[in-house]
Amino acid sequence: MSASVPPEILRQVKLLELRTRGLVNSLFTGEYRSVFKGQGMEFSEVREYQAGDEVRSIDWNVTARMRKPYVKRYIEERELTVMLAVDLSGSERFGTRGRFKSELASELAAVLAMSAIRNNDRVGALLFTDRIEHVVPPRKGRRHALRLMRDLLAFEPAGRGTDLAAALEYIQKMLAHKAIIFVVSDFQSSELEQPLKLLAQRHDVVAVTVDDATEQTLPDVGLARFIDPETGRTIDVNTSDARVRARFAEAVSEELANRRRLLRRLAIDEIPIHTDGGVVDPLIRFFRTRETRTRHR
Fold this sequence. Notes:
Low-confidence stretches: none
Shape: elongated
Strand content: 15-25%
Structural class: alpha/beta
Number of helices: 8
CATH superfamily of the largest domain: von Willebrand factor, type A domain
Order of helices and strands: HEHEEHEEHHEHEEEHEH
Distance between the termini: 45 Å
């Protein structure tokens, strides 16, 4: 991407930072930290036993030497890597309820990036269509997060199609250690099960599914011409035919059900977001659901 960034994009980045920083500071910092644990525990110190300490944390060697009980204390190794895999294909540049799916995806990715940076984690991004378009290696710091937001807003992809499987395989090869991977897409791609399964075996994968309500219902507007945003192909459809609308609704319902079944089968959490809503409520539901599940375990 060119080093010269239009002033309008810089203004959008600033506004997005202000909006997401407020959300992160007021809503998501605690939830993010409690849901995404560090990679392990690091020894901190030995101190005298206090009421309520677990017996299994007693350091018996020090206890014998000091003739009173002492316990080992550990601190969480907090540093994590967060990767945002964001779909920029033609189907993402669609929206009828105030904004495109790609705009909603960028806002959610910005909130997650700011949450990671706020917790001193590394964050990176991979932007893809039917090819790998742009990669931002994981790093720390506010400046890096702003660069990532700028790229999300300003990058113009060369491709229009979707090859999510190739993007997942690229991330698998790219990341040497376990990471949290948010896959932000409408998942309108084929042959996903195997690459998703392999990625989820090694990493913590979360599917952020981006949808628009009008994609799920065919309006009754008579003869209409539809253009596939990814291939450019056109088709004329008589939308006043009740049988056509029924078949369309059935096909969409089956596609969504298949997507849900696939994610459940692979034990991959889903954050569903829609262009007629925001990112706050879906994220809060995700954090709280996962925290509850973790606590029960």
